[in-house]
Amino acid sequence: MREIAERLNKDIRSPVRDGTEKPRRLRPRDAATMIIVDDEGTEPRVLMGRRRADLRFMAGKYVFPGGRIDRADHTAPAADELRTEVQRKLTDRMRGRPSPTRPRALALTAIRETFEETGVLLGVAAGNRAKCPPAWTSFLKEGVVPALQPLTLIGRAITPPGRPRRFDTRFFAVSAGNIAKALPAETAADGELEDIAWVPLSKTRDLDLPRITHVMLDVLETRLAQSAGLTDGGTVPFFYARGQRFHCDYL
Question: Where are the domains of the chain?
Fold first, then answer.
């Protein structure tokens, strides 16, 4: 993984400025990404989409669905809870004041953003809930409640300084077998992602990807080649910048 961190160093330098604008010291915001793996065919596929060209952050790049944490993610219902090992790794080196609700909220962020950006609902069938946070109304009215137990944490990365947005992103992975329902993306998605599709792993490198997405695909392929696959076990790489270099620690 340290060799992978060296690849990120190609992108570490801050964007060139004209000298009239001082770079803002942005604090990374908690965020989460979901990698859904369909391994039923001859080759594993992952769900990806292209970010709109008019977006300020990673415009035109192919990414996994995800986004920043919402206050409502702390109180949204779930059918079960995170596995103990996933909870522990999410808490490890947590910025700010560690909270027992933040790991759960991060997992729910990844599930909510996946639905909002692709129309895919991860969870189990359940009755319609009359009371829920407004940000979760559209999800829960489909008769699905999120399931956290199947999620595996496979990576974490913090956007380096000097970028227009900075995120402390946790990368979750889950089998496509945990999809409870999938709505047509053109009617359910929020429009942030275009060209949403299941992409064979061997074809993902042909897309215009952010370097961190390249890295997480390498991490995913390594895990899938091991017997543990998407279950717990092993270490989780944590990529972050210090000075003008990326480093890789393990959770």
Answer: 2-9+26-250
User: Which tens digit of pLDDT belongs to each residue from 113-150?
Assistant: 999 999 999 999 987 666 788 889 999 999 999 999 99
CATH number of 2-9+26-250: 3.90.79.10
Residue 149 CB-density burial (10 A; 0-12 exposed, 13-18 middle, 19+ buried): middle
| Contact (Cβ atoms closer than 8 angstroms) between residue 122 and residue 185 | no
d(CA 122, CA 112) in angstroms, rounded, equals 9
pTM over 0.90: no
The region that residue 124 occupies, defined by phi over 0 for left and psi between -120 and 50 for alpha, beta otherwise, is: beta
